[in-house]
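Predict structure. Chain length: 472.
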Amino acid sequence: MFTPVILAGGSGSRLWPLSRQGFPKQFLALDGQGRGSMFQCALARLDGLEHAMPLVVSNEQHRFVVAEQLRLAGRVSDKIILEPMARNTAPAIALAALAATRNGGDPVMLVLAADHLIPDEQAFHAAVMSALAHATDGRLVTFGIKPMHPETGFGYIQCGEAVGDTGRLIVAFKEKPSLVLAQEYVASGQYLWNSGMFMFRASKYLSELQRLRPDILEACRSAFNHAEHDGHFLHVPAEHFALCDDESVDYAVMEHTDAGVMVPLDAGWNDLGSWAAIWDANEHNADGNSHQGDVMSVESRNNLVQAHHRLVATVGVEDLVIVETKDAVLVAHRDKCQQVKQIVQRLQVEQRDEFINHPLVSRPWGHYDTVDRGERYQVKRITVLPGECLSLQLHYHRAEHWIVVSGTAKVVCGDKEMILSENQSTYIPLGIKHSLSNPGKMPLELIEVQSGAYLGEDDIVRFEDRYGRAGS
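Prediction complete.
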């Protein structure tokens, strides 16, 4: 028995424009197999192993996305730990270990990233069981991936002598190498890719962190002790967590501990960290192309093309990544995919909305999709899940028209309450308190037409909200 810890706090900036700050890659379906998001696949991968309910560590702004994806996956999490800002893996794991030991327990924790692809689940299970034996004996275990080719985008682990039947001592961790050095690593047979997955007893990790980086543990313990509980959510306060260094578990602990062991994993692992990695992982046609959506190709080879909203046609091009979304199009050479991050940095500096949000925006009650917008109007398609309810709110700068497309809507507008069904509509005047809920068993879909001088999402005053957002 062990406790899975799913780290779901990354930003996935190299997979822009599909991955955005508000909805990063771990919550997207990227493996092309139709099995759900990467986060959901990480949970499903645990089936067949005896384990406790998972702990999830994510970002505060993704809390409702995590909760909804757990619901869609039919899973229950004992605790969802919410970081107010990213501080890398060493603090995230420390928070999970503190949560796991809070009531006197001391489980072995299997630390997994939410955005990895591992096709061979039997091999994964076998490696986990091997690691469990080492972790039970007090070792800090990391998983090393057998390299499929020289790769400059991954870190490497230099292997030492055997430990038991399945483990290897860790000689050194190596940063992302040059191509020449990566070729040397692979040819030597003594280096494996660093997977970023770990297994160790919670108390052992905390004791090593105390020995090696007491400042990180002190900051995490202070933040954890001041955290607020809200159902399954544990809200870590920003004023305490901000004092913690941004440090990976490799730098903070694994590179310095004398208790480290590496367990090899040969399961087709891929961290899907770039569009080139997506092309590698996906199936290809006879011309080496990987297509998704409405794509036409003429004399084009070895391309990754994703069309999410309209036809994309290629003629006479090779080795390109073309990703079309509703509000952005990326065209990049496959060898330059790591530099997509530079575009994201520019978007952030220029404070463009394409850095943060998709046109499709998730909310705890469902989602909305921006259909059209102009200087004084905006049109959205809104989906409210069964039994869910938007907050009682008002807007100072816009009025709204709601038209029900399917399902049943319960509307409160001022002192009036009404039930609307398909093809019925209502008008919400500027400055009037209102709310919308779905009392039915099917999703409610409606079209919202906003009109006014200002249409920003911050023009909301909430009075009552079941998701803890009243007053914001």
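Summary: The two ends are 42 Å apart (CA to CA).
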